[in-house]
Amino acid sequence: MTRLGEFFAKKSINKSDVARKTGLSKPRLTELTNNPQTKLRADELYLIALAIDVDPGELLEYVCQGLKLKKT
């Protein structure tokens, strides 16, 4: 499960509703929530945040938690 999938589970978000509101396909949402190798695009994250009534920055911060800059 991905961080987005964890967020959906934690908030009991219905993927079918999100798909309907965003225009993203159900298979794409399933891939984004289950497959850690799948890349979430910025436009997808923004639409999802709007659909679930969450601040896009908050969702981005949750999804990207753990990312760090490389030390140089």
Automatic annotation (TrEMBL):
<feature type="domain" description="HTH cro/C1-type">
    <location>
        <begin position="10"/>
        <end position="59"/>
    </location>
</feature>
<dbReference type="InterPro" id="IPR001387">
    <property type="entry name" value="Cro/C1-type_HTH"/>
</dbReference>
<dbReference type="InterPro" id="IPR010982">
    <property type="entry name" value="Lambda_DNA-bd_dom_sf"/>
</dbReference>
<dbReference type="Pfam" id="PF13443">
    <property type="entry name" value="HTH_26"/>
</dbReference>
<dbReference type="GO" id="GO:0003677">
    <property type="term" value="F:DNA binding"/>
</dbReference>
<keyword id="KW-0238">DNA-binding</keyword>
<protein>
    <submittedName>
        <fullName>DNA-binding transcriptional regulator, XRE family</fullName>
    </submittedName>
</protein>
